[in-house]
Amino acid sequence: MLEFLGLDDVTLAAYRLWLRHPEMGVDGVAAAVGQPAGAVRRSRDRLVELSLLLPSTERPGHLVAVHPEAGLEHLLQAQHEALIRRHERLVRARAQVNTFVSEYLDNRPGGDGAEVEHIDSADQARVELLTLLGRSEKEVLALHTRQGMPPALTAEVLPVELRALRRGVTMRSVLPRTVNTDETGVGYVRTVASHGLEARVTDDPRIDATTVDGRVGLVQFISPGADQLALIVRSPALANLVTQLFEQVWESAEPLASPDGGVAENGADDRPSDTERLLLRLLSLGVKDEAAARHLGVSVRTVRRMVADLMMRLDARSRFQAGTVAARRGWL
């Protein structure tokens, strides 16, 4: 946990030994931590550089361990000041983004206040979809038609959806059955499902609709041989109708089948994603949910949902048992 201060595991282990056994030399510490003497000498020099060890004036060749706060406080202060500077840059960047948003809204047809806005451009519909997903805060519900998510759009939507999932947005999607036989679709579902997307399949609903936070949505009507018609819905009442349509389709939709013919949990296979592996490592170190969430850049709710999913997949009744089973399976 102190690597961000420049202290690796060997250096920390050596420091702990010198705190408890100031009489130990480099060779003794090297033998105790199971590291070459050269590595321990580098750790010693680093500890001296940080004023965590001082040469003894009474016993030449020996070292005196200093109280941790004396040596580490200035490092913590330096990190704190760096965080403050970073926060200031983020505030300035946010102000610049807000300026761009204002310019974008000022120059778009119809502005951002109309309750229903007609869109007759596929490019504009794509931009609106990415904007809605990027601004989501709580929940995204999506109906996807067979023609609604071509490979190019899938590649654009995927990173935006993953960022939304990482910040704790709940996402549910109803997909056409063809997703089970389409290589791009299967890859897309596996990726987002491993981050928390819930997915079901049904026959092509002939409508592509996405609602965000229950108050705004993008509805696209796709008919063979006809121009694509899209509507931005900002009326709460109309957005509620789209949400109700989604819930009706969701209830009648089927769980997404896994490639081997079984039913996949949330559309993902049994193996953990890189994020889940990191979470398992953090939990094995005793890291609390709040700290794990900060480390992963997600919400505490998302961490707890991921833990619950991992425990279910590992058939574990406790987090300790989950860690044991995960290690046995080679997940750690």
How would you describe this structure to a colleague?
There is one protein chain. The chain has 332 residues and is α+β, with helices and mostly antiparallel strands. The protein has helices at 9-20, 26-33, 37-49, 68-107, 122-134, 151-166, 183-193, 236-252, 274-284, 289-296, 300-313, 319-329; strands spanning 53-55, 63-65, 116-119, 139-143, 170-176, 198-202, 207-212, 216-221, 229-233, 254-255. A hairpin with a 7-residue loop joins strand 1 and strand 2.
**What share of residues is helical?**
40-55%
Tally the helices. 12
Major sheet attributes? 8 strands, mixed
Counting copies of identical and different chains, the oligomeric state is single chain
Structural class: alpha+beta
What is the beta-strand fraction? 5-15%
Number of strands: 10
Element order, helices and strands?
HHHEEHEHEHEHEEEEHEHHHH
Order of strands, widest sheet = 3-9-8-7-4-5-6-10
For the CA atoms, what is the radius of gyration? 27 Å
First and last CA, distance? 18 Å
Which residues sit in consecutive blocks of at least 5 with pLDDT less than 50? 259-268
Mean pLDDT: 76
Shape estimate: elongated
Sum up the structure in keywords.
332 residues, 10 strands, 12 helices, two-stranded antiparallel sheet, alpha+beta, single chain, 8-stranded mixed sheet
Strands, helices and their partners?
Blueprint: H1 9-20, H2 26-33, H3 37-49, E1 53-55, E2 63-65, H4 68-107, E3 116-119, H5 122-134, E4 139-143, H6 151-166, E5 170-176, H7 183-193, E6 198-202, E7 207-212, E8 216-221, E9 229-233, H8 236-252, E10 254-255, H9 274-284, H10 289-296, H11 300-313, H12 319-329
Parallel strand pairs: 4-5, 5-6
Antiparallel strand pairs: 1-2, 3-9, 4-7, 6-10, 7-8, 8-9
